[in-house]
Amino acid sequence: MSEAASTGLARRIALVSGGGRGVGRGISEELAAAGAAVESFEDCRRLCDGRGAPYNVAKSALESLAYTLAKEELRYGTHVNVVAPGLVVSEMGRRLVKAAGVDDIQSLDAHSPFGHVCDPADVGRVVRFLVSEGAGYVTGQRIEVDGGGSRR
Length: 152
Hints:
Elements: H1 3-7, E1 13-17, H2 22-33, E2 37-41, H3 52-72, E3 82-85, H4 91-99, H5 120-130, E4 142-145
Parallel strand pairs: 1-2, 3-4
Helix pairs in contact: 2-5
């Protein structure tokens, strides 16, 4: 049995924000490797330069939409969850740490919860689980993928 067939992703469609680069790309690649059809849409970073309010408003709106869809589509067996990564090795992650005065994102590895800054593939594996049969009873949740950093 193929991996796609064993995980049930061959019949799944995943909508990925920013699937062309960074974390979104890692998620898209992980899901596609498991057989899912992946559709990418670009978030507000394509429409603005990623500063403050527009980016935060867009992300908040996407979360609100996800929670609403989780309630409305439950009767059809549709699962909708939000994945919220912390700092990730990506173009955006490098810009964020540089703005905070850190030249190399990898220099933060020793201070990260699991000894390394989150990689896009780390986030992709969480999303892959969420679209698998293993998460068959999970919907309407916000899953933080930050190594517990937000809990410290």
